[in-house]
Request: fold
Amino acid sequence: MSRFRLKRVYEAPSKEDGYRILVDRLWPRGQGKDAAQLDEWNKDVAPSPALRKWFAHQPARFDAFSAQYREELTAKTANLDRLREIAKTTRVTLLYAAKDEHNNHAVVLKQVLES
Reply:
């Protein structure tokens, strides 16, 4: 069983979430900080602004986006290792705001964390 899970930040928090971390660079529209019930907001593991803007949530660009984002994540090993350490003792829920549950950066981040 994976110690990492994905969830839209707009979904209600639950006990099963464990450590809740927002992995978006921008704060989600219409989401109050209290309602999010975050343990952490980690902008550093989000895609760069240029890559995020280029991707623009277009499914046709997801494969290229994924490859470029994985490349960006290679420079963030300390941050990724810290999240893996947290996951050794509790589930880590990666929160994101994107509407597309399959073609977003959190999916790629989870794969990288699990590899």
User: Anything to note?
Assistant: The longest helix spans residues 62-73. The chain has a mean pLDDT of 94. The longest strand covers residues 4-8.
